[in-house]
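TEACHING EXERCISE
Course module: macromolecular assemblies
Task: Read the component lines below, then compare them to the predicted structure of the full complex.
Student: A.B.
Group: 4
Components provided:
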Amino acid sequence: MPEADTAPAPFRRLAVVGLGLIGSSIARAARHYGAVETIVAIDRDATVLDRVRALGLADEVTDDLAAGVAQADLVILCVPVGAAGEVAKAMAGHLKPGAVVSDVGSVKVAVAAAVAPHLDPGIDFVPAHPVAGTEYSGPDAGFSTLFSGRWCILTPLPEGEPEAVARVQAFWETIGAIVECMTPEHHDLVLAITSHVPHLIAYNIVGTAADLEEVTQSEVIKFSAGGFRDFTRIAASDPTMWRDVFLANKDAVLEMLGRFNEDLSALQRAIRWGDGDALHALFTRTRAIRRGIVAVGQETAEPDFGRGRTREPDPS
Amino acid sequence: MPEADTAPAPFRRLAVVGLGLIGSSIARAARHYGAVETIVAIDRDATVLDRVRALGLADEVTDDLAAGVAQADLVILCVPVGAAGEVAKAMAGHLKPGAVVSDVGSVKVAVAAAVAPHLDPGIDFVPAHPVAGTEYSGPDAGFSTLFSGRWCILTPLPEGEPEAVARVQAFWETIGAIVECMTPEHHDLVLAITSHVPHLIAYNIVGTAADLEEVTQSEVIKFSAGGFRDFTRIAASDPTMWRDVFLANKDAVLEMLGRFNEDLSALQRAIRWGDGDALHALFTRTRAIRRGIVAVGQETAEPDFGRGRTREPDPS
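Instructor-supplied answer key:
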């Protein structure tokens, strides 16, 4: 059975550090899909741990990082990217030889630089980023199918063990994700335009609307169906996570923001000068990108965006 | 029966000019809710008229504007705002005395200025704007519950007949909308921030992403789940309609865009200087607005945004 011989060995004991939306979804998905034998939930917040226990998301629940990761085969850091280095430092020396450490951060260059130096030789670090989420936070917000059909990007380090990468890839595929590998630098550029700048812009316009004197907040809220409400959904995402993303991916975000601003100036000028042809040309071109997204299956053509499927009964 | 005495007289014969997403939804809703006795569909595009016939959306279907509006009690212009004046001019003199003309334009000052001068005395013009829509266009995209629980803003002219306003209000309420009145000037400011600038920004960032050299279009499409895909949905809206909106509401859009740009510069500076507190403060504040929108019922807290309900079986 050549396939069985070459298949990467699954992880037996998984430790999830940080049980927010992503961490709790990984715990739920790992159990739902039978990806591991034992799940350890680690969080320093007692309220979070109480919810994790009440929801029955893990086999072991602890606020003791060193003890929690001690016997783990795979440790996934699900903390804001600004906290990843600190957590790595605190668990250094407590990991067992051959353990694999991964993460879920939306920024990869800065996280790799913060985490890797703390890990002993013999510990493999495979940075990962599941491109999935909702605007909700905390252990109650997670669900086992969050990663289903979504991309998970791995950004293996040059010195990384290919076998560890293959095992992490197999873990993500088991819980439903589609895996792609790229360099950390390229990841940070791609995500700057597909995620970080869109979030920044959404936060910004919601703030602008809140400060208007001529238009009341109540009016903004009432008439948000005109397009604004999609921005408020994005701008309701976790503030700490996003603060860390912008600080950690500063260069790529400022680069993409610069391009966005140049393009917006041109559009502003077209409006001021009544250049309807320029506006129409851009608006026609952007339709094609939407069609591409629907075609590639990251979205459906249904008005509910395919979001309805996230509400299937969650077995965990 | 005092209520029957004071209730505004319903319209018997409705003419819808322009059978796109909004016009076809009005036709479907008017029939579904029994708002009128007879529906006339008028469009200059033969392909659209063929679809209207095939879908059975109206009692009479014609490309002859003058004949179509001749006996109507209520004429609703559902054309791009840049075309409203031209249509009003073409139907002037063909309307019957006492007829009421309305529209659905996303801009009210410019439309009122373009339409009103063409209407004879004895014809009432009641500008309206249903704040509802999807990113789809054309007669197949409409559905009868599009306006259900959504706001419809009326911007009566100073010389407008209160009785005509009351009848138009009753029409919209019959097809499920909630009606609010305001001045055309205030409408244009409110919609500039809740709809027009959000659309402009969405179009802009989708264009920026399409032009990148370092990140391929295929990558943008694949990893859009990080936030970008919500912008692509908005940026897939009808190009002609939106070109006209920006040209017709130039002053309010440029005013709101100026504020947006000032705020974005401050945010850009906070990122450049690593001011995490400023970022966190803004990101926390914007969450409250989202909660307001969910609380007021223009949105639900469900991950599908309440969009699922637009897929209920359409009886028309």
